[in-house]
Design the sequence.
DNA sequence: GTTACTTTCTATACATGTATAAAACTCTTC
DNA sequence: GAAGAGTTTTATACATGTATAGAAAGTAAC
C-alpha cells in the first residue's frame, strides 16, 4: 500500500539481469553492451542506469545469479582440511565457468550474496580445524586471493593462446641471457609446456597445510 | 648498413614509453589516454599504434621499464625458503607500487623482461631447496598466482574504500540469514575490520612451507 | 628524374560506457 | 481538475580505444 508515486518503471533489475543472461548465451560476453542489452529489454541504454550503477555492478549481479544457481558439492568430506579443499575447488570451478568473472574479480575478498556459501563453509571448516575466528577469516582470504589469481591468470593464458600471441614470450626466452638468468635459460622453451599445467590443487593443498596445522587433528 | 627504407619515423617506442611516464607522473594513470600521450610526443593517437600493438602492450612496456628500474634486495637470506619469501615479498612490493599494474595482470605467469629477476631467483632458490626443476616452476607459478591475486584484491579494496562504497557490503552483512550463514553472521560487521589486514606474508609462508618440504633442510 | 616499393603518419569513423538535461508519467493535494 | 512533486525514461553529447584508408616521405631500380 505504500502506493509508489512517480512514473511507473517499465523495466526492473530482474528484467535486466535476465535479458543479460540471454544476450550472453546468444552472443557471448563480448556481445553484452549496454545498448544491446537495452534493445533486449526494449528500452534505451541510459534507462538501464536507473537500475544499475554501472556495467561492473551489472556483471556482479550476473555473477551473483550465476553463482547462486550453480550446483554445490552434495557431500563434503568430514575432515575439515579436506572440506576446505573441496569447497575451494568447487568455488574455483564455478567461477572459472563464467567468462565475465575476470572483469569482476577486482571486487576483492567477498563475492556477492549468491556466493556466500563458499566463504561460510571454508571459515566454518577452518574453525572446526582449530583456528580462531580471526585466523579462519585470514585463511579464507588467503585462499580467496590465491583462487582469484589462478582464475585471472589462466583466463589470460587461454586468451593469449587463442590469439596465437606466443611470439613475444618465445622471443623473450630465446634471447635470455644465460649468465644473468641461468635457471630460466635452462628451461628454455619448455616454459610454455610447463606453465600449461593446472597447479591449482597443488597450491591449494600447500596453503591448507600451511594455514591449518596438523596438531589438532580431526577428530 | 641495412639503410632502412620507408618514411623515417618521427617517434620511437622509447619516446612513447618515456612520454607515458611523464604523463602518469603529471596526471596519474587515469590521465594516460592515447590522445593525451600522442600530444605529449607531438604526434597523433593512431601513430602510436605503429609502435605499440594496443594500450595493454603499452602498459606492459611501462611496467617493464618500471620493474627494471626498481631497487632489488641487496642481500638475500641464504636459506632457500627464506630467500623465496624475501624475493616474493620484494616482487609484491614493487608491483603494488605501480597503479596501472591491475590492468596488466591479466598477463598471467610471467612478467616482462625487466622483471625476470624475480622468477629466476625464486626458481633458483626452490631448486636449491631440493625441488626438481618442474616442481620449482610449479612453486613459482603458485606463488605468482597468489601474489597477483593479492595485488588485485587489495587494489580493489583500496578503490572501494576511496569511493566510500562500503554500503553494499554493510547491507549484505546486515541482512545475513544467521541460519544459513552462521559463521558470517557471527562475524557481523567485523568483516570490514578483519579484511583490512594485510595477510600476504602469512599466506606466502604457508605456501612456501607447503611447497618446499622441510626434509632436505638447508644444510 | 621517374617509377615502384616500403614504412610511418594523418584523417576520419565507429562502438562503447556514461554524464547531463529534458521530457513523460503517476500520485497527492488542493 | 490543476498544480506540484517524485520517478523513470529518452535524447543528446562526450571521451575513449581502435579500425580503415590513404597521404607523406624516404630508398632502390631503371
Sequence:
Amino acid at each position: 500500500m505504500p502506493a509508489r508515486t512517480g512514473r511507473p518503471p517499465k523495466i526492473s533489475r530482474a528484467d535486466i539481469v535476465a535479458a543479460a543472461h540471454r544476450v550472453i548465451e546468444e552472443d557471448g560476453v563480448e556481445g553484452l553492451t549496454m545498448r544491446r542489452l537495452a534493445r533486449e529489454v526494449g528500452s534505451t541504454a541510459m534507462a538501464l542506469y536507473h537500475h544499475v550503477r554501472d556495467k561492473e555492478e551489472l556483471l556482479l549481479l550476473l555473477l551473483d545469479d550465476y553463482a547462486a544457481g550453480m550446483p554445490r558439492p552434495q557431500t563434503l568430506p568430514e575432515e575439515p582440511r579436506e572440506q576446505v579443499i573441496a569447497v575451494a575447488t568447487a568455488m574455483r570451478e564455478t567461477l572459472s565457468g563464467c567468462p565475465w568473472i575476470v572483469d569482476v574479480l577486482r571486487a576483492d575478498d567477498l563475492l556477492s550474496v549468491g556466493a556466500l556459501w563458499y566463504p561460510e563453509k571454508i571459515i566454518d571448516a577452518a574453525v572446526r580445524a582449530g583456528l580462531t575466528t580471526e585466523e579462519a577469516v585470514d585463511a579464507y582470504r588467503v585462499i580467496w586471493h590465491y583462487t582469484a589469481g589462478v582464475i585471472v591468470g589462466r583466463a589470460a593464458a587461454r586468451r593469449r593462446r587463442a590469439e596465437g600471441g606466443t611470439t613475444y614470450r618465445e622471443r623473450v626466452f630465446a634471447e635470455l641471457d644465460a649468465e644473468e638468468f641461468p635457471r630460466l635459460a635452462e628451461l628454455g622453451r619448455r616454459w610454455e609446456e610447463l606453465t600449461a599445467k593446472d597447479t591449482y590443487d597443488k597450491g591449494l593443498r600447500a596453503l591448507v597445510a600451511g594455514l591449518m596445522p596438523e596438531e589438532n587433528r580431526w577428530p
User: Anything to note?
Assistant: Chain B is about 60% helix and 0% strand. The domain at 74-211 of chain B is CATH 1.10.357.10 (Tetracycline Repressor; domain 2).
